[in-house]
Amino acid sequence: MNILHDERYTGTYIIGKRESREVGSNLVRLKDESQWVKIPEHHPAIISKELFDKTQSTIRRAKCPKKHVHLYPLREKVYCGNCLHRLSRVGNVTFRFVCRHSQADMNAPCHGLRVDETELESLVYEVLKKQAQILLGIGDVDVSGIKALSSKHTGNCQQIGEMQEQKRTLFEQMILGELSEREYRMKKGVLDAELTRLQEVQAALSTQLSQRQADEQTKNANRLLAEKVVDIGKLNTELVDMLIDRVYVYPQQNIEIVWKEGGFGSGGKEFQKNF
Q1: Residue 148: C-alpha distances to residues 151, 154, 213, 220, 247 (Å)
Q2: Do 170 and 215 have their domain in common?
Q3: What is the mean pLDDT of the chain?
Q4: Nearest-angstrom CA–CA distance, 154 and 144
Q5: Domain that holds residue 224
Q6: What is the pLDDT of residue 106?
Q7: 247 with 132, same domain?
Q8: One domain, residues 205 and 258
Q9: Is the CB of residue 124 less than 8 Å from the CB of residue 74?
Q10: Rg of the chain's alpha carbons, rounded to an integer?
């Protein structure tokens, strides 16, 4: 370790450099430097700033990649439904998720909670596949309905344009003396009332059309996602990262999947199924 990186040697005191990884855990992680609070010249520096800067410029900084990165689909996604702590993955050849938080408390409802990783992955995939099949069974995009609504929207917009043109014509006629001011105001009042009605209709049509288009875009995106789920045939990291926020495992041998917002159309939960 390069001791010159330590704030003790530069005279700078740093607050908030690390934080606990989760509630109740002794594990800590380094926070982003933008979140640190630095107090320069807090205490006498062991070396001068000039020597520190010179030394740092000559040091070869090389990060050693982690040699043992355990990649698996449900990484950091599995939690105890009772104490809400993340379950630990343990094992050598075969793996399982266990609740370490309750190991020392024999009276805890989740004491001894464990679930086989392969069984859990299989169950989670079956839930994903079931949801995908439901989405694939939904009817195709209502193209004709959107076209009809769009045509109505366009026609109403044209009527508004014509009405505004009639108001300009009335004003020109009054300026040229072809209409009296009284006649102009009467005819303009009729046009204004109709124009207000058409604009209200237009606003409603715009809202409906935007919603229908957004719904169909979401439906198309979800159908593509559902097809991908079925085609892959098993749970993988990509599907989990796209769709799943958390998986809660309960002592009663049930699970609860919390979907990510936008996953299969909306955030929500697929509640409890035996494993």
Answers
A1: 5, 10, 12, 20, 43
A2: yes
A3: 80
A4: 15
A5: 143-229
A6: 84
A7: yes
A8: no
A9: yes
A10: 33
Handedness of CA 12, 16, 21, 25 (dihedral sign): positive
Beta strands (DSSP E) in the chain are: 13-15, 18-20, 28-30, 37-39, 78-80, 88-91, 95-98, 114-116, 244-250, 254-259, 268-274
Residue entry with tokens 């355990």 = 70
Phi, psi of 159 (to 5 degrees): -60, -40
What's the Cα-to-Cα distance from 201 to each of 8, 90, 153, 210, 213, rounded to whole Å? 70, 62, 9, 14, 18
Give the chain's domain count.
3
Cα–Cα dist 45/27, whole Å: 30
Same structural domain, 94 and 203: no
Please check whether residues 167 and 214 belong to one and the same domain.
yes
- Residues 84, 194 share a domain: no
Task: With beta carbons less than 8 A apart as the criterion, state whether 107 and 113 touch.
Answer: no
Phi–psi pair at 182, nearest 5 degrees: -65, -45
The CA-atom distances, in angstroms, between 43 and each of 12, 13, 36, 40, 47 are 7, 8, 18, 8, 12
Q: Identify whether 69 is part of a domain.
A: no
At 100-135, the pLDDT tens digits run 888 878 888 888 888 999 999 999 999 888 888 887
Tell which residue, 122, 121, 137, has the closest CA to residue 227. 137
Contact 247, 124 (CB under 8 A): yes
Angle at 41 between CA 55 and CA 47, to 5 degrees: 30
Q: Distance (Å, rounded) from C-alpha 243 to C-alpha 227?
A: 14
| Cβ neighbours of residue 22 closer than 8 Å, sequence gap 6 or more | 85, 86
**What mean pLDDT do residues 187-211 have?**
91
What is the mean predicted confidence (pLDDT) over 76-91? Answer: 91
